[in-house]
Write a structure and sequence with these properties.
31% of the residues lie in helices and 20% in strands. The chain is α/β, with parallel strands linked by helices. A 5-stranded parallel beta sheet has the order 6-7-8-3-9, sandwiched between helices. A 4-stranded antiparallel beta sheet has the order 2-1-4-5, with no helix packed on it.
């Protein structure tokens, strides 16, 4: 997939888009609409120029297999350790070895530790679109810096759309979008 378009926004490969907005403005709804091919606020989303209405079930399935939707918590399987999760999702052993907390289960991790461990799941090589919903909300500044490094490492040949309500969140070389302005909320 090379592009996703909604209204006047076009998301293309090799970029990171940070969607800002207050709580309740629709950031999660927006990401969910992209992932589930539903209209977003009663308007179509376009994938490589094709409307969601014109996609066949098999086209939707193929596109969805190329996406990963990650929320702020609950991305790891509770009954496996972090290492077992990464092995289950077939993450490169080099990435597994760089990950902390390998011997812990998700319920033994703080919110920020779980989030930084979950980011290793993004290294699934076949995923072209990364939809990340508030994934740094529980992180301290040190882990947030690591998350930013991971995102920059991942952006090649991918579309990354990241949501946050934290107006202090800053990254170099990203495209910032205020969802409230896109939706024309006043």
């Amino acid at each position: 997939m090379n592009s996703i378009k909604y209204r006047n926004l076009e998301f293309t490969k090799n970029n990171i888009y940070v969607i800002f907005g207050d709580n309740g403005v629709g950031k999660t709804t927006f990401l969910t609409s992209i992932f589930l091919f539903k209209k977003c606020f009663n308007e179509n989303i376009y994938y490589d120029g094709k409307s969601t209405d014109s996609l066949s079930r098999s086209e939707k399935n193929k596109l969805q297999r190329n996406m990963i939707f990650m929320k702020s918590k609950g991305n790891l399987l509770d009954f496996l350790t972090v290492k077992e999760n990464l092995e289950y999702f077939k993450i490169d052993p080099d990435i597994v070895n760089r990950t902390k907390f390998l011997d812990k289960k998700p319920n033994e991790l703080s919110g920020g530790e779980e989030q930084i461990s979950s980011l290793s799941l993004l290294f699934q090589k076949d995923k072209e679109v990364l939809l990340l919903d508030e994934i740094t909300s529980f992180m301290d500044r040190e882990n947030e810096s690591k998350a930013k490094e991971i995102l920059h490492e991942l952006k090649k040949d991918r579309i990354i759309i990241f949501t946050t309500h934290d107006i202090r969140f800053r990254m170099d070389d990203v495209i910032n979008v205020n969802l409230k302005e896109v939706l024309n909320f006043h």
